[in-house]
Automatic annotation (TrEMBL):
Transmembrane segments annotated in the record for this chain: 143-165
This protein's name: Multiple epidermal growth factor-like domains protein 10
InterPro entries the UniProt entry points to: MEGF10/SREC1/2-like
Domain of life where this protein originates: Eukaryota
Single Gene Ontology MF annotation: scavenger receptor activity
Length: 323
């Protein structure tokens, strides 16, 4: 009696099972699992792309959090601005190895000079030349001289200070509003980078607007589809969603082929598609990051425009057993 049994071995299933048996351990990712995650709070990153689920630790950026903050920025999400006299700014804490630029003080150069002082090392004083002006007023001087000096101190100096002297001299000479406010009744809010004090009269910011704002007085919010410093960056979100006007983060993620918080980075080499979760099978580096199309063909064993189909999908075996 001859009994014949037929079965099919699906190579795709076998490959999937093999992948599961050989997934990268927690904290590793990439080809050969040779790369280590670098995530906030030691989170485990995606085993294929290295992307961190809750972002990067302070001082780092990019999808895999391997890049230090861009020059001139530091801290969480690289959102703070360095005020170092050179390029020695620590990307994590903002500490300056060789001191601060004029107008700032402190270990990480984030504090303004004390009231009444300005300049490099905050060692210059506003009061001396003002004292000379007022001395002319109270001393025995011609009336017209006194009038000119009063006008200069009370009105003209405010505008001269903006152009000639340190910007904050304008604040010193003007009616004081609380920090972060300006206007006739101090009822308008400054929107300056790093919470700088704006001009108390017209709201202009000495070093530019805070991210998400634009305009001469930094009161205009970025229009939909724009974000960042001066609203100069464009959103790149899934389904053309409007991103956050400050951070550029997309509410529903990136379009296929892109990654990172702002969706500006293309998928890492060897990956493509939605969330960069698919693996390329091109015989070179021509893999399209959005669709996986291979310009110069597939590696052995794969076929199709995006090289995702197994060349030998199934194999039939017939086993005969004689009894």
């Amino acid at each position: 009696m001859l009994i014949v049994s037929d079965f099919k071995l699906n190579s795709a299933i076998t490959e999937t099972a093999f992948d599961k048996w050989h997934q990268c351990p927690g904290g590793k990712y990439g080809t050969g699992c040779n790369a280590e995650c670098s995530c906030r709070n030691n989170d485990v990153c995606d085993r294929v792309t290295g992307k961190c689920p809750h972002g990067c630790p302070p001082g780092f950026t990019s999808g895999t959090c391997k890049e230090a903050c861009p020059k001139g920025t530091y801290g969480d999400n690289c959102s703070k601005t360095c005020h170092c006299i050179d390029d020695s700014c620590n990307p994590i804490y903002g500490q300056c190895a060789h001191g601060c630029v004029a107008g700032y003080q402190g270990i990480n150069c984030q504090a303004f000079c004390d009231k009444g002082t300005y300049g490099l090392h905050c060692n210059k004083n506003f009061h001396y030349w003002l004292f000379l002006c007022f001395q002319v007023i109270v001393e025995d001087a011609p009336v017209f001289v006194k009038v000119v000096v009063v006008i200069f101190v009370g009105v003209v100096a405010n505008w001269v200070a903006v152009v000639v002297f340190d910007f904050r001299l304008a604040v010193f000479l003007s009616r004081f509003c609380d920090k972060g406010t300006y206007g006739l009744h101090c009822n308008k809010t400054c929107n300056c980078i790093d919470d700088d004090n704006c001009n108390p009269i017209h709201g202009a910011c000495p070093r530019g607007c805070a991210t998400g704002y634009t305009g001469s007085d930094c009161q205009e919010q970025c229009s939909p589809g724009k974000y960042g410093s001066g609203c100069n960056e464009e959103c790149n979100c899934r389904d053309k969603d409007v991103c956050d006007r400050v951070t550029g983060i997309c509410p529903h993620g990136c379009p296929p082929g892109f990654t990172s918080g702002t969706c500006k980075e293309v998928c890492p080499k060897g990956t493509f598609g939605d969330k960069c979760h698919k693996q390329c099978h091109c015989n070179d580096d021509s893999c399209n990051p959005a669709y996986g199309h291979c310009a110069h063909g597939c590696v052995a064993g794969y076929r199709g425009k995006s090289c995702q189909e197994c060349e030998y999908e199934t194999t039939d075996y017939t086993i005969g057993i004689m009894k």
